[in-house]
Amino acid sequence: MTGRLIERFLPAADERTVHQIHIRAAPEHVLATAESFDLESLGLVRTLFRVRGWLLGARPMPPHVSRGLVENMTSIGWSTLAVEPGRQRVMGAVTRPWEADVRFTPLSPDAFVSFAEPGQVKIVWTLETEPDPDRPGATLFRTETRAQATDEDARRRFRRYWRLFRPGIVLIRRVLMPALRRAAEGAGATAPRRD
Predict the structure, then answer these.
(1) pTM as predicted
(2) Exposed, middle or buried by CB within 10 Å (0-12, 13-18, 19+), for 25?
(3) Cα-flanking dihedrals φ and ψ of residue 28, to 5°?
């Protein structure tokens, strides 16, 4: 691996979450499975999205359209900031997450790094795989999210939002990880070769 790509875009953060899981499949297969996984196929995830919207007074969610994670996130405004094929992807956006009908603004990698417009939060998240050093033939899959406000007012607003919604955000990751493992280890999983 060429190093963790997330470090290029947000080396310091106001908030950070990391989740990882061991999966019995090749790193390339695990990453492809994660990128194409339909997050909203998980009923609890859809429920949590609806609860967030209800608490903030958002418009009703549109009907679910089955699509992969990367495609879905791109459709709502996230952009891919960097990719190491078969190993990691970093996505990012700027936003005001406390708004009821939250909007994500995609930026180019260079614009994301230098972005400093007041009243915003820069958010990056990753999908990362590497051969599991403790389990031959397995992959360590990690997802990390980092968020950093661009000024003190945004930081105060974001921290209030984060205190309220962090449990649901973490729960989404905890539901996603075993579902992703089941998908990656299921039919068609490609195990690494042992030479």
Answers:
(1) 0.89
(2) buried
(3) -65, -40
